């Protein structure tokens, strides 16, 4: 847009312009997005939009002006605490998402350690390589060290308990496990990990951002799952997002603490400036009550039965997808998941070329790079809107795989590997330029076919890859 228009535009014109801006966005209602879309279906969606806009302007910071925000937050937090088998001592708050909940959980551990673990002079958090990047971000922001431990590809890429236990030290202030990890949808051995931290008086956080609510519903439906919640004594905090499989719109997550004493380390207060006194239980200060109201509305509308119905349908669709993939020669599901998310890999075709083929057919999957002993893969998170399209998905997948097997690779990975190895000691700007040419990048727009770029990124060491991605975003 550039400079501010001198005269404002009519409402209809602005709305038309917004539609124009959205022209290239994917159709999120179309059922072909297989990642990051958590759709509750029409009724609940419309209701959440209404609730959101009803409370759009109310600032949840001002609890004196808008007591409704606090009441709704208490209800949502209470429901999650109950689902996650917390007792009456468990308390919590709503945040803007998984990342904020995680940053807050790590900050709580840091400040708790300052009081209770003076031996932790160089504080560290210990987490499996499958833990979400938000923990690395939290450590980066909070000046903490990250100790990464191994996962076991033979056990569904779950954390290795031995590696985790061996990494704990006098400096450890927080252990972390996922329920489930996003990449493969498998639950870490939380009971064993939390026992190891509890033995040493160390806090333990469960990242249930994607699965906390969904897995609790599955457990209530009788699914045999390993434990992951407050029923495990050593678990001291849990994050669970409403804006994922809680089916609320963004931005909404919940962070639960074992008790108030622990939460006291999350709080920030400041009354020593000319400004009003700030008392924040979360990272954000001013925030719309919209996401809190929408979460509240969706929870009340769906109820346990609604969540069960969606979980039943989504689980059946996931199983049908996994069974269908097993029947397609040339690809495989890398781990049997604990919920409706999984990855597919191949030793025969390029997974990145498969991603492009599927994109051509309208499907959005999520490529993940080789890591932690596992190969590059395509991630799938199944949601309600995908349920009617399982057959179409499997048909397009089979066709894409068959065409790639017949045609052979169009990206010469061996050549790319030789080139990235040859260029590895170049100055960074030169490296970026050479690799951009190799990937066929022109200008700052992403190419239609991402396989060359993804292959290069997959071949690079993570540190170089991070620098390249940052340079790309910074140039945009
Ligand atoms: C397991 C897990 N933790 C944390 C996050 C971060 O959540 P957000 O994107 O809401 O910040 C995600 C996001 O996908 C996740 O899957």
Protein architecture, described:
This protein is α/β, with parallel strands linked by helices and 476 residues long. The chain has 16 helices and 15 strands. The chain folds into three domains: 51-297, 3-Layer(aba) Sandwich (Aspartate Aminotransferase, domain 2), CATH 3.40.640.10; 303-351 and 362-407, Aspartate Aminotransferase, domain 1; 413-475, no CATH class. It is 44% helix and 13% strand. Helix 8 (212-220) links the parallel strand 7 and strand 8 (237-241). Helix 4 crosses helix 5 and helix 10 (290-326) packs across helix 12 (390-407). The model has no long low-confidence stretch (mean pLDDT 96). Residues 97-99, 132, 134, 178, 182, 207, 209-210, 241 line the site of pyridoxal-5'-phosphate (PLP).
In short:
Helices cover 44% and strands 13% of the residues. By secondary structure, it is α/β, with parallel strands linked by helices.
Annotate the secondary structure layout:
Elements: H1 11-21, H2 42-54, H3 67-83, E1 91-95, H4 98-116, E2 124-128, H5 133-142, E3 145-149, E4 151-152, E5 158-159, H6 161-167, E6 172-178, H7 190-199, E7 203-207, H8 212-220, E8 237-241, E9 253-257, H9 260-263, E10 268-270, E11 278-280, H10 290-326, E12 332-333, E13 341-345, H11 351-360, E14 366-368, E15 377-381, H12 390-407, H13 413-423, H14 428-439, H15 451-459, H16 462-475
Parallel strand pairs: 2-3, 2-6, 6-7, 7-8
Antiparallel strand pairs: 1-9, 4-5, 8-9, 10-11, 12-13, 13-15, 14-15
Helix pairs in contact: 2-10, 3-10, 4-5, 10-12, 11-12, 11-15, 13-14, 14-15
The chain binds pyridoxal-5'-phosphate.
